[in-house]
Amino acid sequence: MSQYQFTTHEHTIVLGWDPPLATYFAQVWKGDPGSPENVRCDHPDLEPEPLLWIGVRPEEIATVEALGESLKPYAEIPTELIGSLRGDRDHGPAQGKMEHPTPEAEPDLEAEF
Questions:
Q1: pLDDT-derived band of residue 50, with 50, 70 and 90 as boundaries?
Q2: 107 in a domain, yes or no?
């Protein structure tokens, strides 16, 4: 999976390609994703929710153009990301492209049995 993030003066956009679902995805957040502005009501236990979350079903968004059209009310995909997104779909993401890779767990060699 690839994941990119960019900001506008009002929104944070998280987008990329999800190979298992064969779809592009995007989330649009008001300001910072963790901001209290993204909690839909005044309840302390609720998690922030994006204004828009697309690409959650298999083959939902097949092209960068369709992704851009869905994001149009919020932002335009930066030109430098368009080629990267297409390449991720066609060839898979390059090593190290994800912003937050999942670290591999190290075995506990001193664990008692």
A1: confident
A2: no
Q: What percent of the chain has pLDDT over 90?
A: 60
* Domain of residue 16, residue span: 4-91
Q: Within a domain: residue 33?
A: yes
- The total number of structural domains in the chain stands at 1
Look-up of token digits 């001193």: 110
pTM: 0.74
CA 6-49-96 angle, to 5 degrees, is 40
81 in a domain, yes or no?
Answer: yes
- Does residue 60 lie within any of the structural domains? yes
Annotate the chain with DSSP letters as a single string: ---EEEE-SSEEEEEEEETTTTEEEEEEEESSTTSGGGSSSS-TTPPP--SEEE--STTS--SHHHHHHHHTTT-PPPHHHHHHHHHHHHH-PPTT-SSSPPPPPPP-TT---
